[in-house]
Amino acid sequence: SSHEHKLNFRKSKEECLSYIQDAMLQKQWKRAADFLIFYTESLEKDFSKEYMGPAEMIWRIGTEILCHHSHSSMKEFNSFIEQMKTLGVKRYLKVCLEHAFHLLCNGLIDEAYQNLSLAESWRFGEQTAIQDKEMKLIQAYRGLLDYYSWSKQKTVLLEHGQDGFEDFSVEQEMHSCFRKAAVNLKEIIKIPGVWDLFVKCYVDLLEFYGDHNEARQVLSEYAYNSKFPANPNAHVYLYQFMKRHGESKKSLISALKILHDIVPSHELMIDFNTMLQKSKKRKKRRLGLEVIFAGLDYAGWKENVKAWSCLARQVKQIVISEKHLDWIKQEWNSRKDWWPAFHFSHYLAKRNWQGNESLSYEKALVAGILLGKDCKYFKYVSHQGCKAQVKRFRILKKFVNKHNPAYLRISG
């Protein structure tokens, strides 16, 4: 029956797609290509009225296969992608964008630029307005390539100076690239989204020509506009800009405080801790201790010598002054059940000692204060250091033994 025929046909198509997926997952690109050919041929016999989105699947699957197939060439890829552009106006700009990405990945920058320029001039009735976001992406990536050209011209000028007719023509070309890049990059970053690369390039253009106020405004908007998704990089770029232009420590601390709230394990938290420790305000020094403890809660910081050095220095200062031991106690109370196994095991003591003497020293100091002179980590490292006749380890051992009462107060 006609109904049974349709069911069988649909089932065979689904099985074929399943075989293609299996082949791709196993990186059997020739097998996947064979099945795709069968799938494409079967669609020509498909008289069902149900929309299955075959063009979308052929485009995405075919692109993936051609990117990995051992016998695939750029000529074949270009031919395939041009056919995909004619399969439907709804995805025309997306296909153009992917084509440009593939050309860029293969170092064909001029061809990618030409492809984006042609896509930008595309018009198709109402579809032009519907695909407004895709068109803005096309323009933005063309702006990115204009920025790339500008950057190359800038390098030529900086290396050879600005004398002579040749350099004048280079400078003119550079300004032309700047204008084209700035227009398109400025447009894309107005749309709420994550535009890290575009923002960095636009700010670089503005800074080079001395428009620092505009650059500051762009970065502030990118970081603080509630319509944009939460993005740690936005705060990093703003902080780096502020630091480059010598803004006050108060402003820098405010920027890093927001970053800390979003990503307490960010590498800039070491800079944040350093600034806070240098502050004369007790509240900020207290925050500094909280920041460094929070960073060391993450596995990525386990062997970060700078982080352990920051914590060791601040903890040592507190113990010597015998002031604010309650700060350490408050931080330690929530960690004493899991930090010993996470940071201060006998196994880690041996591994740290063999791999990095400075790391083992800083950690041993912290371990001795937090867990006392009988801590496995401290005992092993201090013994090895004294055995190796390293003076600072003898001093470390004496310090921890002398201030063992501080451990008793911290452990409560």
From TrEMBL:
Name of the protein this chain belongs to: TATA box-binding protein-associated factor RNA polymerase I subunit A
Lineage: superkingdom: Eukaryota
One family name in Pfam for this protein: TAF1_subA
InterPro entries: SL1/TIF-IB_Component, TAF1A, TPR-like_helical_dom_sf
Gene Ontology BP terms: transcription by RNA polymerase I
Organism: Phalacrocorax carbo (Great cormorant)
GO cellular component: RNA polymerase I transcription regulator complex
